[in-house]
Design brief:
The chain has 269 residues and is α/β, with parallel strands linked by helices. It has helices spanning 51-59, 98-109, 115-128, 144-156, 174-191, 202-208, 237-240, 244-268, and strands spanning 8-18, 24-35, 40-44, 66-71, 74-75, 83-86, 162-166, 194-198, 211-215, 223-228. The radius of gyration is 19 Å and the shape is globular.
Length: 269
């Protein structure tokens, strides 16, 4: 029987790919992590360490070589609407409005709901991300930030148990990025969805997370360190920036990444 402290559990997770010589190379090797229900986890690490590989295995989009993933005590073997993914590119259908892009997923996940119930779910999700007045626009009529809001709305409309974010703000300018960080925080405060976000941004990880998981270099990457973030929710960006702890957290993460970079350089020389 699972507990809320072990709501999502990754045990000795391994993902290996064959090299040109036919030998299996473990990109991720022995990744262990227990995530509490409603917790927000960031995963950071240098490019190529396997962050997105871990996320796609949680999503059920990438077969696991060995180890296992449990959600509410049940093993994950395939993708499903209980795990919604938002990628860096929103991947909207260009011939559909924002409303219809979200409605498409809702119809598939809630086929027995009435038309009005489906419409209410779509309207709620688009309203939460700030697109109540733009829901009938086409992707070509929206900025990159607005398109990503649609992608987030499409994910939360499915009422997932776990929200998976793969560098969702990586293509956006800094102002839009901060706006969408607050959108995500507001959603988490309201919906209490267990969330995992992949990011390269140390400040983003600190601002959004309850814990930051640091991955070692790949191949053979695993959890190298975990930093608890002790800021209360809801969070205030200006207040956090005045706290000494913020800069202590930042120094800890930057030092870890710098040590990983030094190790990579040493191995290459």
């Amino acid at each position: 029987m699972y507990s809320d402290d072990h709501y999502l559990e990754l045990s000795q997770l391994v993902k290996a790919y064959p090299n040109p010589y036919g030998d299996d190379i473990a990109v991720v090797d022995g990744f262990d992590l227990k995530i509490q229900k409603g917790e927000m986890i960031s995963i950071i690490g240098h490019s190529g360490c396997g962050k997105s590989t871990v996320l796609t295995m949680i999503a059920g989009l990438n077969p696991i070589t060995s180890g296992g993933i449990l959600l509410e005590g049940h093993e994950i073997v395939n993708s499903g609407p209980d795990r919604a993914v938002v990628f860096q590119a929103p991947c909207l259908l260009p011939w559909m409005t924002a409303y219809k892009n979200v409605l498409l997923g809702v119809k598939n996940v809630y086929p027995k709901a009435t038309k009005r119930e489906q419409e209410q779910v779509v309207e709620y999700a688009l309203g939460v991300v700030g697109l109540a007045d733009s829901m009938h626009k086409y992707p070509r009529e929206m900025s990159g930030g607005m398109q990503q809001r649609v992608g987030i709305a499409r994910a939360i409309a499915l009422k997932p148990k776990v929200l998976l974010l793969d560098e969702p703000f990586g293509r956006l300018d800094s102002l839009t990025r901060m706006e969408l960080q607050d959108v995500i925080l507001n959603i988490l405060n309201r919906e209490k969805i267990t969330t995992v976000i992949i990011t390269h941004d140390v400040d983003e990880a600190i601002y959004l997370s309850d814990r930051v998981v640091m991955m070692t270099n790949g191949p053979g990457a695993k959890v190298g360190d975990i930093l608890d973030i002790h800021f209360t929710r809801p969070r205030d960006r200006e207040q956090i920036l005045t706290e000494t702890r913020y800069y202590q957290y930042r120094e800890h993460l930057v030092r870890f990444l710098a040590e990983c970079e030094d190790e990579k350089v040493a191995k290459a020389s």
